[in-house]
Amino acid sequence: MTKQALFEQILLKKSYLCVGLDTDIKKIPPHLLQAKDPVFEFNRQIIDATAPYAVAYKPNIAFYEAMGVKGWESLQKTMKYIPKECFTIADAKRGDIGNTSELYARTFFDKNSSGFDFDAVTVAPYMGRDSVQPFLAFENKWVILLALTSNVGSNDFQHLKIEVEGEPKKLYQQVLTKSQEWGSSESLMYVVGATQADKLAEIREIVPDHFLLVPGVGAQGGSLEEVSRYGMNKKCGLLVNSSRAIIYASSGEDFAERAEEEAKKVQQEMEKYLSAIV
Ligand SMILES: O=C(O)c1cc(=O)[nH]c(=O)n1[C@@H]1O[C@H](COP(=O)(O)O)[C@@H](O)[C@H]1O
């Protein structure tokens, strides 16, 4: 999906919500456990309930990998079920030496090889240019590079003060600057945690045109209002992810209705913020 097509979906649905499919068999409502594939059945109902309010879905690969072959099958079925107009993100946080990254890229992007046809994959920047480029080599696909993550551990490395050509910088700022040599805003997005919303205005100075994937609203307590105020650009430029707050809004038989209510609530708030740019 192109950047413009994604923006058009955002305008159409008046939403920049990404629903995170962090589907944990231990959290699935008990009545679904008799289904042939409980993980897929849960996802199917969540997708049906939230698709009018979401422009993107982000299965977190760990939740599927942890179940072995069965998990990969549930993921395949889920991917086939997600409506075609929705942007899909494999949240895999990969990155390795070039020839290995090439295989990771094939895993998520090459339908003929793996059966998967995600629009985007999350990638860790730590190993540098040659670890990211194999993902960027796929046309019409996206790399979402971890820039400033939502967790407390982001303080360990990402905020470190460094010096680049005599200029003082933070490590995450250099990730944003350097990676722009590798791909454009048509193929690269960045992860910025919602819990780091106070840094968004400054991040926008470095990457004014790129889309940002912003996880951390809902269960992690980030503010959608602040993220939108400081992070939105003229073409929205935001995909805000919420996983647990939507998919586990209820652990009972009404889980899909409650997920719909939560997704709708977020979408209605987003519609308000979008009115500033349309
Ligand atoms: O890359 C991510 O999606 C990600 C980056 C980050 O900095 N923080 C973060 O929470 N995530 C992911 O976003 C989702 C957040 O889930 P909830 O906290 O339940 O909304 C999880 O799948 C995380 O792995």
Main β sheet profile: 8 strands, parallel, barrel
How helical, in percent, are the residues? 40-55%
What's the β-strand tally? 10
Strand order of the largest sheet: 1-2-3-4-5-8-9-10
Which term fits the overall shape? globular
Overall tally of domains: 1
Structure ligands? orotidine-5'-monophosphate
What's the gyration radius in Å? Answer: 18 Å
CATH architecture: Alpha-Beta Barrel
Just give the CATH class. Answer: Alpha Beta
Would you give the CATH topology? TIM Barrel
Task: Quote the distance from N terminus to C terminus.
Answer: 21 Å
Point out poorly predicted stretches: none
What do these coordinates show?
The longest helix has 20 residues, at 255-274. The protein starts with a helix and ends with a helix. It has a single domain (3-274), classed as TIM Barrel (Alpha-Beta Barrel). The protein has 278 residues and is α/β, with parallel strands linked by helices. It is globular. The model has no long low-confidence stretch (mean pLDDT 98). The protein contains 13 helices and 10 strands. Helix 2 packs parallel to helix 13. The structure holds orotidine-5'-monophosphate (OMP). One of its GO terms (biological process) is 'de novo' pyrimidine nucleobase biosynthetic process. Pathway: Pyrimidine metabolism; UMP biosynthesis via de novo pathway; UMP from orotate: step 2/2.
Supply database-style keywords.
single chain; 278 residues; alpha/beta; TIM Barrel; 18% strand; binds orotidine-5'-monophosphate
